[in-house]
Structures are given as structure tokens and as C-alpha cells.
Design a protein that fits this description.
10% of the residues are buried. It is built from three helices and four strands; from the N terminus they run E-H-E-H-E-E-H. Helix content is 34%, strand content 18%.
Length: 83
Amino acid sequence: MLFVNFTGSLFSSFKSKLHELAAEHKGKGTMFLVGDFDASKNALDFFGVKAEQAPLIIVQTDAIEKLLKVQVRFDDLASWLKE
């Protein structure tokens, strides 16, 4: 799950990179969910994150393990997904 400010200046860069990554990971069991910080307060509260940590990625594994990366740059998305 990627949480980013949809009205922020970086959103178009994230959106473009996510489309590219989704195409690369199609059929590999990776799912992408993008949420706007302003509309995702309940989800953010659930994961214990704050708006100033945006943009951020939360990866939840099958074992319910949660991995968090804050202050994400769109250039880092591909390498982080490989980890």
C-alpha cells in the first residue's frame, strides 16, 4: 500500500512509476493499493503512521508481517519491491 498526498506535486511521478511497476509485476502475486492520506485516516491509524511520514509504503506479507518505509522517493520503489 502506498499512501501519498494526491493533491501534492509528487503524485504524478508516483502514479507514473506505479503503472510501470504494476506492468512489471503483473501475474507475480504483487498487488498495489494507493491511498490518499486525506481519505485514509482509519488505515493510517491502524498502521500507526502519521501524515508527516508521507509518502510511505506498507507491505503486509502472508504471515501478517508489516514492513514500513517512510519518506519514499519514487525512484526507490522498484528496488524496495525487490527486497
